[in-house]
């Protein structure tokens, strides 16, 4: 069983292994808020996972270490296990879903681990790792459903209480539940009045559904770009601890996560992966009763796949009304584009792309379509431009924002 003494022991063991990450006051990320960011995205290996993995491996006997360790992970736990194994001269074999970002796979390889890519999601990698463990008799280091791992993650709760003694609420991203189980346990043991909230992606809400139904639910599938939380089934230990110590769990959409990533980059100069921005998304979109409360959002990881950053930014710009698209049906004659551009310029928007196409079979033969992409300030600004074009007699056939 987990105890506060075990969490404090983990803190002592990890003090020379992991960073005590900063707690940053983020006044400008959400208006009229008291938001603080626990920047585990700046942790060694770029994720909180190194805490639990390192504490688990530090407690292995010499005999167990000689057998080697086995793990499964969407990427962040893999790096934590690989680093801890390298420091202890232990052979590590890690099973990773083939959908994991290449950056996480390559980073894990650099720590000397043997990588086995498995088709599917985390749960498929887990099954393959369990079979391999039975064949080799190695030590399985579970990414979340393990007392030592949970205690290691709980050290974040101790740091938050030390850095912000009057904290009133903590928002924690959830995948399998190791992070929130440890943080909630530590905080509720030492400051029961502090609220602990969990947040999952709508496309991977296994703990959310389990928490609400008060029984473990396994999802048939998961679908979210927050790959670090794409878990079909929460852990038994983590579920029990969430039921006992977590005040509520909510979900956010992938669009809301993308907007949170963009806000963190723009306003705080911090880069997070999808899972790492879950807590901020919950706060930005008023999913929890935290108004006026000193609230800590844990940024659980920063190992974002650079190949999707541009897509995430574009989605975030669309969601916030900063990037807009219009399609206008008009008569194909000289001067039309100039007049449309003049109206847009008068309202202070910036045209970044224009595409002119011939009309379709259901339009007049002299008609055409003008597709315009532009930078706008917000949704209201975009509406003003649409109204101005409509007032001038232009027919808007579609708009995306």
Structure report:
This protein has 401 residues and is an alpha/beta fold. The chain contains 15 helices and 14 strands. It has helices at 4-14, 49-58, 62-67, 76-87, 102-110, 122-136, 147-163, 178-190, 206-213, 236-245, 254-268, 278-284, 306-319, 336-346, 379-391, and strands at 23-25, 34-39, 69-72, 92-97, 114-118, 139-140, 169-173, 195-201, 248-252, 294-299, 323-331, 350-358, 367-375, 395-400. It has a six-stranded mixed β-sheet, with helices on both faces. A four-stranded parallel β-sheet has the order 5-4-3-6, sandwiched between helices. A four-stranded antiparallel β-sheet has the order 12-13-11-14. The longest helix is centred in the middle third of the chain and has 17 residues, at 147-163.
């Amino acid at each position: 069983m987990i105890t506060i003494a075990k969490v404090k022991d983990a803190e002592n063991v990890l003090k020379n292994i992991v960073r005590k990450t900063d707690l940053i006051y983020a006044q400008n990320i959400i208006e009229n808020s008291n938001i603080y960011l626990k920047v585990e995205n700046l942790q060694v290996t770029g994720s909180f996972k190194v805490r639990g993995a390192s504490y688990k491996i530090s407690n292995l006997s010499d005999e167990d270490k000689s057998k080697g360790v086995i793990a499964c992970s969407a990427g962040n736990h893999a790096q934590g296990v690989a680093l801890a194994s390298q420091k202890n001269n232990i052979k590590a074999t890690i099973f990773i879903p083939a959908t994991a970002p290449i950056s996480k796979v390559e980073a894990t390889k650099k720590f000397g681990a043997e990588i086995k890519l498995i088709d599917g999601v985390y749960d498929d990698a887990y099954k393959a790792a369990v079979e391999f463990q039975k064949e080799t008799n190695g030590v399985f280091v579970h990414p979340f459903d393990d007392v030592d791992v949970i205690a290691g993650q709980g050290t974040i709760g101790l740091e938050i209480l030390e850095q912000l003694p009057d904290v009133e609420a903590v928002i924690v991203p959830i995948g399998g539940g190791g992070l929130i189980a440890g943080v909630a346990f530590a905080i509720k043991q030492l400051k029961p009045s502090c609220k602990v909230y969990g947040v999952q992606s709508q496309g991977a809400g296994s703990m959310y559904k389990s928490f609400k139904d008060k029984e473990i639910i396994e999802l048939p599938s998961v679908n979210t770009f927050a790959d670090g939380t794409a878990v079909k089934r929460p852990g038994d230990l983590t579920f029990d601890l969430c039921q006992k110590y977590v005040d509520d769990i909510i979900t956010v959409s992938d669009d809301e996560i993308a907007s949170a990533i963009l806000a963190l980059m723009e306003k705080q100069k911090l880069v997070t992966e999808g899972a790492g921005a879950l807590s901020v998304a919950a706060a930005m979109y008023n999913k929890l009763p935290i108004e006026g409360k000193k609230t800590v959002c844990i940024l659980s990881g920063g190992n974002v796949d650079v190949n999707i950053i541009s897509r995430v930014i574009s989605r975030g710009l669309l969601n916030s009304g900063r990037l807009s698209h219009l399609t206008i049906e008009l008569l194909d004659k000289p001067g039309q584009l100039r007049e449309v551009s003049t109206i847009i310029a008068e309202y202070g928007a910036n045209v970044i792309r224009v595409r002119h196409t011939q009309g379709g079979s259901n339009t007049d033969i002299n008609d055409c379509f003008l597709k315009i992409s532009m930078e706008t300030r917000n949704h209201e600004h975009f509406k003003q431009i649409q109204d101005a074009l409509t007032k001038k007699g232009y027919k808007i056939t579609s708009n995306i924002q």
